[in-house]
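User: I'm curious what two different proteins look like when written out as structure tokens. Can you demonstrate?

Assistant: Sure. I'll show them one after the other, since each token string lines up with its own sequence. Here's the first protein:
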Amino acid sequence: MHARRFSLRRLRAGLKGWGGVGAMAVVCALALAFALLLPKTQSTGEGTDGQEVAHGSQARAEECTAPEKQTLSPSGADGSTIDAIKAREGEKRKLIVGVDQNSYRWGYRNPNSAGTAELEGFDIDLVHRIAQDILGDPDAVQFKAIPTNQRIPAIQDGRVDMIVRTMTINCSRLEDVAFSAPYFKTGQQLLAPKSSTITGYDDSLADKKICTAEGSTAYTKLDEDKKANELVSSADISTTVPNQLDCLVRLQLGEADAVVTDGALAASQAAQDPTVELKGAPFTTEYYGVAMKQDADDLVRRVNQILVDYREDTANGWQASYDKWLSATLGEDSAESEPPAPQYLRKS
């Protein structure tokens, strides 16, 4: 307890001059240690039974070469999964979605929002669009804050209908969940203090402590590169945390020298803390997708149809959300400023 109080005092001292958004990020990260589910009511697990089994609809990892293409063609039809969601009664008639609540401009509680501190961001806009299409009400959503390392278990256990939380589509995850077509393109990148000698994903990481989130593609990449001798051998990748934003806190406390995460998230964190910056270019190419249960074919197809419509809606769709939340940090003409073109595994 004494050590914790000492760390908090150091943290408060380091926050001077930050401003409201930076402080919000740190407070949210620490708060996750105590409460993760939104709201406090527990999921009933409804909507997880009686679904059609679609063995082989997602490619197995050993056969997978382009994970962002391993999804089903769009359809606006209902099915057993969607029927079960619609059959929920009263206040429970909501889409249950796992999200982040402290990723600035993606899914976060804005402390400056007229006392409501509602969830806002690019991912949250997409959730409201999905709820509008399936249930006819953009606010018919029960949000649940899910840490990075609990995204897949939350889907498999039926705690959520889907995860919309900057979740990268990759071959390994296709073993456990189904994904929509990609809705965002990014890549792994380094975040470090501006004063750091780190220049990018190179030999400047020698003897440096790198922080990643448990269960993240960032850690997988570092671990694989370390084993393949493609990452400088003296780099320390042992620092992992449940939530990615916790790495920024470690960086601010001097407990890590660098953070590896998606460039899109890193850019938002650099906007929160003016003492850090992106170092070097992205060194992977990755795509975010909406994650669902493997046998929820009708829901996967429906979300893919929603994404088609969302991309084409120039007034209130993907581009409008990007311009509102992300253009300030990623730019209006960056590679991320347009939605990725979808490709599908099969048409029927």
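Here's a second, unrelated protein for contrast:
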Amino acid sequence: MDEQLEPVQGAGGALDRRAELSEFLRTRRARLKPEDVGLPDFGRHRRVPGLRREELAQLAGVSVAYYTRLEQGNGRNVSAEVLDSIARALRLSDAEHNHLTHLAKPKTHKKKPAARTEQVRGALRQLLDSLDGVPAYVSGRRGDILAWNRMAAAVFGDWDELSAPQRNWARLVFLSPEYRELFVEWEQKASDIVSFLRMEAGCYPDDPRLSSLVGELSVKSEEFRRLWATHDVREKSYGVKRLRHPLVGDLTLDFESLRLADDDGQALTMYHAEPGSPSAEALRLLASWGADATRAGAGRSAPSA
């Protein structure tokens, strides 16, 4: 299958969980070579990339027919023990293992994700404002940017100038040229966002807003289609981001993203620079410029409609 032609659901629909399960298992199996798992490689006689279904079934200790049904998207009545065995055979990461479990044994949610608008607690907004000199924001499900402080606006642009639907990391990164310039390792940022959305799709396949977002990006961005077709999932709660800021130049910032236990899907992300570094001095300058720094970022274009 051409990776750029993988079907996605459009606005208002739901992502096909069975198709998601099938494609996820197929792509994980395809990335493993026989020698990776101690099996002989018969070279030119192999007609498929990666492991055959029967080889994977043997490694997992299940019948070929059982694994085939699962890879065809039929996860009904599969046990946690079998999923664990398949995850080990496929050498899945913890995030991939969780994703497989969500796809095969979906949880029933009492409320559909679209039933309410995500709210940020007042105390959390006060915390954001108190983080003087620290760019920080709260993001929600689907990568929506829900609340932020003055320093986040100075670094990333004045999100007040955007409509609520435009304040979404996926739309900003894939549809706004200015954000492509802002992130030095743009491809890595884009990959991280798609991996996050894949995990969201596993947890909430019936979320019409998520389906609409995926459909929109698939139509508007070839790069999104390519990355979405990889079915990669991973969690990235900390790391380093290199930015190319229009006012202060290059910034190297560490970030920490903390899940909020009482707010389903929300996370607090904070950035900081190494003390005494040029990036720390650049943040100090942005803080001292106040509203001027924020206005300088307001010229960044909104994602295309």
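A detail about the second structure: Residues 113 and 207 are 6 Å apart (CA to CA).
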